[in-house]
Amino acid sequence: MIYVRQHGEVAEGSQLWRNRDFSVFWASQTLSVAGDSFALIAVPLLVLHVTGSVAQMGLLTGLATAASVAAGVFAGVLVDRLDRRHLLIWCDVARMALYGIVPVAWAFGPKVWLLYVVLPLSEAIGMVFQVAYVTAVRGLVDADRITEANGRLGATAAAAGVGGPLLAGVVAGWFGPTAAIAINAASFGVSALGVLLIRLKRQPAPSPSPEEARGPWHELLAGARFLWRQPVLRALTVLLSFFIFLTLGLTDVLIYHLKHDLGQSDGAVGVVLAVAALGTVAGSLLVGPVRRRLGFGASWIGAIAVAGLAVMGLGVSTGVPVAGATAAAYLACVSVAGICSMSLRQQVTPDHLLGRVTSAFWTIHFSLGPAGAAVLTWGAQRHGVEVVCLLAGVACLLIAVAAFFTPIRQQNPELSGATG
């Protein structure tokens, strides 16, 4: 499977460089993520500039995540039924149009209400895209290259995210946040063009199971049933749902901390998020070697534990360097844990179910997120960033401890049969 060197095969990476479709997909998605980083900064800044409220930032994040969760209920069925390549293209085109509306409308005056329309719709479409994206990786590379492919996509996307937030902060400072959102809209066009140029292989679907043959509702639940029947995936789904509750609003809290507590400029916010993105690069590059050496369980549990410590460190940071360093450590650990989790699902899930399993996982995974973002940002405004981050960090450590008493702790669950 993933650990090709343990089984005497060729070194990792020797085939991916010659995979033309993966290379095109890789390049276009990297550029798209660079554009996404503009919106990551620009949208909270628009809200903060107009309202001055971190609670409003959290409310918008929560509503957008709620829309994503709602879309996730049906995203898997769409991905498993429709042409995945065409679906990816149309999702990009739709998001390009939605984000393109914001700078045009803002030219006639601030319209915060428009963000409450555009962002939830974009996130809902984005959920469909992300589910299809995961299945696309499975359709571009062989099974024994999945973790490496995910790592490379994550690493270069994060590398683009290093320069993206930095440039976004400069653009927002010079031309306003709406200019940064316009760049994000254009990035979706680049992504659509890249997907247009690739081909995806897909395994023929077997005959519907008796449960799926009962009707659309049972087909919709097929992904959730698969997750529930796999002990490791079940435990991951539950624990990651609590983790996202604790951390979804962390970017808003970081921006608030930098602007409100430390009195930093928009450009400084971009610098900190760019430095933080280096953590994602590091985590994405390290996940393959770390998982080979330590195994799945130790990699995932260790990453969640260190992420909790980093969240606590963020709460007590008193300067830009410390805030950037702790945010980078947090994102590195989230990257390791996330890629391990996603790669395991891709490895053990039949192709015809992969969309629904991915959709079910993310729907459940993010179901507590909107409430968590609202609570985290409200708590930061009411009680201070330090208190909120210390409590969230301790809770993350408890999640790591709980994982040790589940099948997650196994070294190679995809090989040992622990997944089913």
Automatic annotation (TrEMBL):
The chain crosses the membrane at residues 24-47, 59-80, 87-108, 114-141, 153-175, 181-200, 235-256, 268-287, 294-316, 322-341, 353-378, 384-405. The keyword Transmembrane helix applies. Keywords: Cell membrane, Membrane, Transmembrane, Transmembrane helix. It is found in: Cell membrane. Pfam families: MFS_1. It comes from the Bacteria. It is a multi-pass membrane protein. The keyword Calcium does not apply. CDD domains: MFS_MefA_like (cd06173). GO terms for cellular component: plasma membrane. Its main location: membrane. GO terms for molecular function: transmembrane transporter activity. This is MFS transporter.
